[in-house]
Amino acid sequence: MKKNILKISLVGFFVICVGVYAFINELVEPPALRTPASYPANYESLKGCEKQNILWQKIEETRVTTLPLPELRHFGFFQFLAMTRQELEIKGQNVSDFAPTGWKKLIHSRGAVAKVKLEITDKYYSGVFSGAECALLRLSLTFKPGGSKGVAPGLALKVLRDGTHSANISALYGIDGQGEDFNFFRNTLSNIVDPGKTFGAKMMHNLFEKASPFPEEIKIEDMALIDTAGKQVTNPVVPRRIFFVPTMTNQFLSSEHDVREDFLKIPAGTALYEIHLASPDGKNLRKVGHIVTASEFTSSEFGDSGLFFRHQFRY
User: Fold this and answer.
1) Rounded to 5 degrees, what are φ and ψ at 254?
2) What distance in Å separates the CA atoms of residue 241 and residue 182, rounded to the nearest whole number?
3) Which of 58, 66, 190, 299 is the most exposed place for a label (fewest CB within 10 A)?
4) Who's near 218: CB < 8 A, 6+ residues apart?
5) Closest residue by Cα to residue 270 from 244, 251, 292
6) CA pair distance 159, 154, nearest whole angstrom
7) Is residue 32's pLDDT more than 70?
8) What are phi and psi of 134, to 5 degrees?
9) Of the candidates 284, 107, 134, which has an alpha carbon nearest to the alpha carbon of residue 196?
């Protein structure tokens, strides 16, 4: 009797494992089923603003034109398992603006993108921190809020440079988010955040440790080493930390709603974030300028799945 129960249990466990694997395979499709967006063979050699035009055209071609917007994607146990199958090192190694074959965005999966400029008034720091006319800003939540998951704002900034790879930075308020406050612009975002305290945050920390021993930090060195003309800076001045301080803190509701609809209301020409940079020792903080929108925000399939933002991991 006990042997039969054991056999049945083993068979049941095997069936569950097969089902879980199949489900994960559905979340992360085999590479043969996914191809990166097509782009000109000479794309990397183009001017930064020409690259912005190409990317924006793809965003416009897949624009979501009706409300409500596509539902925010749930992030749970199976999505976490799917992330364990992805090579997270790709996030740091791929310098292309286009998502590589086989890549699937499982966090920050739904958002909105706008063309922006970096209007810099204090040019103490080098590289793109001297100013940039052609950049893209993507705003998103880390995951769909609900249950133990709070509202977790995040941004990704891509500065297009002439004849070389783009400069990218991502920033969060915190791993655990800001509780039940749905005002996306309530808090300052940064490239360095404290480790989360929830069980899920600790699991994500352990997962991203496979890519970097400092999972809660994204370096900004590359942004300071090459300017928007694609030229290496002779004597670079490199900050350690960047803060994006929202200027529209009190203009949106804190009650539950789709924050992406707030993004769509922001007009071109808005000084959306102040940029503050901290010295390598963290003792000196300078307000250097603003991120200013050069278009309205757009929700699009390419912006969600085809546009790639590199992480410069700290090792």
Assistant:
1) -95, -15
2) 26
3) 66
4) 169, 170, 171, 191, 192, 311, 312, 313, 314
5) 292
6) 17
7) no
8) -130, 105
9) 107
pLDDT of residue 114: 98
How far is it, in rounded angstroms, from Cα 215 to Cα 118? 27
Could you read off the pLDDT of 150-182 as tens digits, one per residue?
899 999 999 999 999 999 999 999 988 999 999
Confidence category of residue 142, pLDDT binned at 50, 70, 90: very high
pLDDT band at 30, cuts 50/70/90? very low
Using alpha carbons, list the distances in angstroms from residue 118 to 123, 135, 164, 268: 11, 8, 18, 14
Sign of CA dihedral 178, 179, 181, 182: positive
What single string gives the DSSP state of each residue in the chain?
Answer: -HHHHHHHHHHHHHHHHHHHHHHHHHHS--GGG--PPP--TTGGGS-HHHHHHHHHHHHHHTB--SSSPPPPPP--HHHHHHHHHS-TTHHHH--SSBPPTT----SS-SEEEEEEEEEES---S-GGGG-EEEEEEEEEESS--BTTB---EEEEEEE--TTSPPEEEEEES-TT--TT---TTSS-EESB-PPP-SHHHHHHHHHHTTT-S-TTBB--HHHHHB-TTSPBPSS----SEEEEEES-TTSS--SSS-HHHHHTTPPTT-EEEEEEEE-TTS--EEEEEEEEESS--B-BHIIIIIB-----B--
Sign of the alpha-carbon torsion through 251, 249, 159, 314: negative
Whether 29 has a pLDDT exceeding 90, the answer reads no
Q: HSE of 65 in the Cβ direction (CA atoms, 13 Å)?
A: 3
**Cβ atoms of residues 137 and 154 within 8 Å:** no
Is 11 a residue whose pLDDT tops 60?
A: no
